[in-house]
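Bumping with the actual sequence this time:
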Amino acid sequence: MKKLFTLFMLGAFALAVVSCGDKKSESEEAKEQMEESAEEVKDAVEDAADEASDVVEEAVEDAEEGMDEAKDMAEEGAEAVEESAEEVKE
C-alpha cells in the first residue's frame, strides 16, 4: 500500500510540474507582447524612412531635370540674343 501511495504521489507531483511548466506568467506574456510591438514599430519606422528617402531621391532627380531644362532654355535664349545683336549690327 505504501508503494502504491508513493507512486500516486510521484505521479501527482510530476503532473503538477508539467502543467505548471507550460504556463507562462503574465509578466512573461506582457514582455513578449512588448517585444513584438517594439519590433513592429521598428519595422514601420524603417519602412517610413525608406519611403521618405525614395521621395527625396525623386525630388532631387526632378530638380536636376528642371535645372537642365532651364540651362538649355537659357542657352537658347542667349543664342537668340546674340543672333539679334548680330542682325542689329548689320
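The C-alpha cells above came from a reply further down the thread. Residues 38 and 78 are 59 Å apart (CA to CA).
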